[in-house]
Amino acid sequence: MRHQKHRSSLGVTREHRSAMMSNLAAALITHGRIKTTLTKAKALRPFIEKVITKAKRAAAKTEKRDALHLRRLALRDVRDEDAVTLLFNDKVKEFTARAGGYTRIYKLGPQRLGDAAELALIEFVKADDPGYKKSRGRKAAKARKPKADKGGAPAEAPATEAAKPEGEAQA
Predict the structure, then answer these.
(1) Are 48 and 25 in contact (CB under 8 A)?
(2) Are the C-beta atoms of 80 and 40 separated by less than 8 Å?
(3) Cα gap 119→97, rounded to integer Å
(4) What is the Cα–Cα distance from 1 to 25, expressed in whole angstroms?
(5) Is the confidence at residue 59, as pLDDT, over 90?
(6) pLDDT at 168 exceeding the cut of 60
(7) How far apart are CA 50 and CA 25, in angstroms?
(8) Is the pLDDT of residue 55 over 70?
């Protein structure tokens, strides 16, 4: 059965796709945010979040050999040793208080001129960032303005003169 087997193919071979994800992940770890196409950003999100989870698990391990194993698994995915070292030693501290959702994708405005691809910005989310809060149901209905009667005049005329200060001249 082939349940849960779908991945974004990105129109390239398997080897090319894994190399592209590795390079994008290394750039994201190094720079903190990168500009790419929306499709690549959406494909990169689960890839990099699994690598960050490995770094968090390695930081929680007490034995050095368990942490080393997780580091080697991350190196298998992200083939840049400097980026993995930076993630495991420094950047993992930003994610220890966060339970998932380590990246955020912003859609950028106009499309690219050459191929009309939608552009996006993918960045790491800080641990203290609250993000968006979910709504708690429907909003309260706003007070409606009184409707005009059949004659065309409003039901109640607004009190505009009462609201004006006494010192103003009427036009």
Answers:
(1) yes
(2) no
(3) 30
(4) 30
(5) yes
(6) no
(7) 11
(8) yes
Q: What are residue 119's DSSP bridge partners?
A: 37
The residue type found at 42 is K
3-state SS record for the chain: CCCCCCCCCCCCCHHHHHHHHHHHHHHHHHHCEEEEEHHHHHHHHHHHHHHHHHHHHHHHCCCHHHHHHHHHHHHHHCCCHHHHHHHHHHHHHHHCCCCCCCEEEEECCCCCCCCCCCEEEEEECCCCCCCCCCCCCCCCCCCCCCCECCCCCECCCCCHHHHCCCCCCCC
Distance CA 95, CA 55 (A): 9
